[in-house]
Structure formats: C-alpha cells, structure tokens
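Quiz preparation item.
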C-alpha cells in the first residue's frame, strides 16, 4: 500500500526502524543542519557498524517553535529510498521500477482481441496514474486556511550553513502551469525566505518552470521574442524593468511542503516537459495522487500535503538570491532570481515541516540521485540502445561525471553516445562522460580506473565540446556556459585507426582456481 501522506510515511519509517525522534531542544538555525550532516555521513567509514546514511530524523522540540516538528533525511539511505517508492526494502530493487517503465514502453497498439485482453492489466495500471481532484472539504491541507496576516516564518524553516543568505525552504514541490499549453509542472526549486510573505524562486533557466515564466512573458509582450530570449539570460527568467508594459503581469505558483514520498520524489525527476510529475508520482505509487484546487490561484496541489503556499511570481521582478551552501560542497554565490509573493497559506492541523540539507556529499540527495539513475536507465536506452549501465558517482555530485558502459558495434560509437547524452534533457549538464566497453562494471570504480587509465591515449581519446553548464558550476568560463569532456576508454578498433595488437587481460585458468579453492581453507590465510 502506498503512503497517502507524510504522516503515513513517518509511520512506515518508524515501523521499519528507520526513524529517530529528537526531543532535545535544537535551533532551526544551523543546529538541525549540523546534526543531520553528521547523521547522513555516518556509516560510510570503513568498518563502521551503522548503516550508511543513518536514520530519518524527526525533530520534536524546535527552539522558537513550540509544538512544531521537522522531518529530515527521509530519503537518506538505500533502504528508505526503496520504502519511499513502495518497494520491499529487503528483496526489492530499484531496477524493478525500471522494469515497470520498460514494460510500459513496450505497449504497442494491440492487434487481435486476445492481444487487447492481454494488455488489460497494463492499461489498468496506466489508469491509476492520472491524478484525481477531490473537494476542499475532503482535503486535509485545507484544515487551516490563512488569508491574512500569514507568515512563512510561522514554520521552522532552516538555515543550513553559516554563510547562507538566510533561511531556505529546501524540499518544496513547486507547481506551475505552462501558459501556452496549460500543462502542469512540479519541480523542486529551493526558496530563500526574504520575509513572511516573500521568498526567492530558484528555478534555473533550463528547468520547466523557468520556461513557463518565459512563456508568460512572451504572451505579455507580443513580438518581443528577441528581447525575451535576451532576458531569458537572467536567471531562467525575465524582468527587464525598462519594459514598462509588463509591470503587473504574473505567473501563478503554488508550493506543497510535506507530501507523500512518491510525490516529493517526483518533483526532482528530470522528466521531459510533456510528462507531468503528478503522473510520475501516480505511476510510482500505483495509485492516483489526490489534488485539490487552490484558494487564490488557478492551480491544483496535493490534497494531503502538510503545508501549501499559494502565490505568484511577477514577470518584471528579480532579486538577489543566495549565497547558499550547495550540493556541490561549495557555496553558490548570490545571483538574481524571480521572487515568489504569497497570497494565502493553508495547512494541516499541527503541520509537520519537511526539509533536507545539501552540502558536501554524501548526503540525503545522493540517494535520491541514485534512484533517478536507476529509474532512468531504460529511458536512456530508448535513445541509446547500446548503453549497458551507467554510474553517476556521488562525489561528482551528479552533473560532474557519468560513467557509461556500451556494447560497441561500430567505429566512433563511444563519441556518438557522448553526444547523445549531452543532447538528452538534464543530462546536458554532464561535465565529464567516460565511456567503457560492456565488460567493465561501471559500479566498480577500481575497475573503471584501471580500464580508463590503461586504455586511453589521452590526446586521441578525449572529446571536448561546448554547451550549457549547470548553474551551480563555479569553474566554467562563464556562468551557465562552458566546455564538457568525453573520454573514450573503449578498446580501439582498426576501423578507428588503431592497428597495434590489443593485449589480453590477465586471468588465472579455471582449473587452477578450482584446485586452489579446494585447499584454500587448509592454507589458513584468512582471519
Ligand atoms: C534537494 C534538492 C534541491 C534542488 N534545488 C534546486 C534548485 O534550487 N533549483 C533548480 O533549478 N533545481 C533544483 N533541484 C533539481 C531539480 O529539482 C530537478 O532538476 C528537477 O528535475 C526540476 O524539475 P523540472 O524538470 O520539472 O524543471 C534540486 C533537487 C534536489 C534533490
Ligand atoms: Mn518537469
């Protein structure tokens, strides 16, 4: 049974022994972050007895917020990530979800009646995917509706690091609608609290919500597309205050904090803009997400969320956002981003505030990223069928390094794969791609290092290109634009101009191995 809401999820975590309650009084300013950082890094040291990632933490005594609770590190281990996606943490594997996606993609238009009947279960499963809108009286997120005198600082929003620009909402599901197509999007974009009624809206320029804002701007300023494109250079957004005629125009935004885990996770999934994240959440849960209409904006939000912020982003306004201690392990400097104005706050009784922190890896987001890696593999293969496996090492913070193994069948294929990856959605941000042959296990970094270092002629096998760069990258020649590198570490073929003989790899013969296996115990060489 999928979790209906955050409270259900907390019960599941508790029952699985994956939750710790903290009753000691601690501050939402830095103290919760320091505790969480230590816990999420525990269990990684060689010989450590605790499991990597530590438990989820429920803070029940937050200084300055009597009665408030803060949930953090809810996704911070492989086991919890599986539980979040409805898998059996003992037996289940994230590849199961990949398998379900693969099956879905194999659905073809059925021929005969028998074929059609065979597809019924799959079609029924798809039926479950679409969100359902329920009435406000059945929606727990409307327990309390505050239209006046509200403040987002009534919730224990965290300050994560000492040099952060302020307090940040770090785990929000941000809902917008494409003004042109009407399609909804849910993205996780951090929000810096400026005051009780205004926050930053840190959607980076290549993200879906930033495009919604640009669409709104194009609609507000007819025939201004060239200017819009230039303005798009500012923070995924807009706002040239000189353009007087757009003053007052806005894009409606709603934010859900504290949703069921599948919905929260769906907000980080790098889905194409055609695919609404509520569908992904429904697919993962195998049960529809229940939505409810907002009070002051024309948007729907998860009905069981703990907290809903309704409001808008103006088309003519940017404000300095940051600095923020980011998941790269460095502070992202302040930069201009759109501003979110809150028009109404609704919440459950005694809302539970849900958050995460990012910083030097490994932290909670590492496990979310790994889940995305596993789930996206079949989708990658749809475009690049030669891909066998991929690994985005946690220390390379997702966009800095992707190791890919391929079944190589023709000359130049490794470079074709690199170009394919750089052309695919958010994989465009990948700064380095290493391509190896299929017999190299990309999850084994020792094996990868041995292969790559041995197999390359660096000048010949390195491919450079230019393109969009992750906004968080601090080394590129320009913000958001710079170079990327691919290393072709596959065995080179004569067809690629390599005519020297390729040496054999060293392996012991099977007969000797089995003979030594037999006498191994007697040799007493292991403690
Ligand atoms: C904890 C966390 C925080 C994130 N913060 C941001 C952010 O501030 N800005 C941003 O553009 N992406 C952020 N992301 C990544 C986006 O959520 C991700 O790219 C997502 O696919 C965006 O949704 P979209 O494709 O619908 O735009 C964050 C991801 C995680 C896990
Ligand atoms: Mn999206």
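Solution:
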């Amino acid at each position: 049974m999928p979790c209906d809401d955050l409270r259900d999820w907390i019960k599941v975590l508790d029952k699985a022994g994956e939750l710790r309650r903290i009753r000691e009084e601690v501050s939402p300013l830095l103290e919760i972050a320091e505790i969480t950082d230590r816990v999420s890094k525990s269990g990684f040291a060689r010989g450590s007895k605790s499991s990597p990632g530590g438990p989820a933490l429920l803070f029940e005594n937050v200084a300055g917020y009597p009665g408030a609770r803060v949930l953090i590190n809810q996704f911070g281990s492989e086991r919890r990530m599986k539980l979040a996606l409805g898998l059996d943490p003992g037996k289940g594997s994230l590849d199961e979800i990949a398998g379900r996606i693969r099956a879905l993609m194999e659905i073809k238009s059925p021929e005969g009646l028998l074929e059609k009947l065979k597809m019924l279960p799959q079609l029924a499963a798809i039926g479950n995917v679409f969100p359902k809108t329920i009435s406000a009286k059945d929606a727990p997120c409307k327990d309390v509706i505050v239209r006046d005198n509200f403040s987002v600082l009534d919730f224990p929003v965290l300050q994560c690091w000492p040099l952060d620009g302020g307090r940040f909402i770090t785990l929000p599901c941000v809902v917008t609608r494409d003004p042109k197509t009407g399609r909804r999007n849910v993205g996780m974009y951090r929000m810096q609290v400026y005051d009780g009624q205004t926050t930053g809206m840190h959607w980076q320029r290549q993200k879906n919500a930033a495009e919604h804002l640009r669409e709104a701007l194009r609609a507000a300023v007819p025939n201004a597309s060239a200017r819009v494109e230039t303005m798009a250079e500012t923070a995924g957004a807009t706002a040239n205050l000189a353009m007087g005629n757009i003053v007052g125009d806005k894009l409606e935004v709603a934010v859900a904090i504290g949703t069921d885990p599948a919905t929260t996770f769906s907000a980080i999934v790098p889905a194409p803009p055609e695919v609404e994240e509520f569908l992904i959440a429904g697919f993962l849960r195998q049960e529809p997400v229940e939505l409810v209409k907002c009070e002051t904006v024309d948007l729907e939000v998860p009905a069981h969320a703990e907290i809903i912020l309704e409001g808008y982003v103006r088309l003519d306004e940017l404000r300095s956002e940051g600095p923020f201690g980011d998941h790269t392990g460095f502070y992202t400097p302040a930069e201009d981003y759109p501003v979110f104005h809150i028009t109404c706050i609704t919440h459950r009784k005694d809302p539970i505030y849900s958050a995460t922190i990012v910083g030097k890896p490994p932290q909670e987001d590492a496990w979310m990223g790994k889940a995305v890696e596993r789930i996206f593999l079949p989708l990658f293969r749809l475009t690049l069928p030669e891909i066998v496996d991929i690994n985005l090492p946690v220390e390379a913070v997702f966009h800095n390094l992707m190791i890919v193994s391929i079944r190589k069948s023709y000359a130049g294929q490794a470079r074709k794969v690199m170009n394919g990856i750089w052309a695919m959605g958010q994989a465009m941000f990948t700064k380095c791609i290493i391509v190896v042959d299929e017999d190299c296990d990309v999850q084994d970094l020792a094996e990868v290092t041995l292969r790559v270092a041995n197999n390359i002629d660096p000048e010949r096998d390195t491919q450079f290109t230019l393109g969009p760069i992750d906004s968080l990258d601090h080394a590129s020649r320009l913000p958001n634009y710079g170079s990327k590198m691919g290393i072709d570490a596959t065995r080179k073929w004569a067809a690629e101009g390599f005519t020297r003989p390729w040496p054999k790899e060293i392996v012991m013969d099977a007969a000797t191995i089995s003979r030594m296996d037999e006498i191994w115990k007697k040799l007493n060489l292991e403690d």
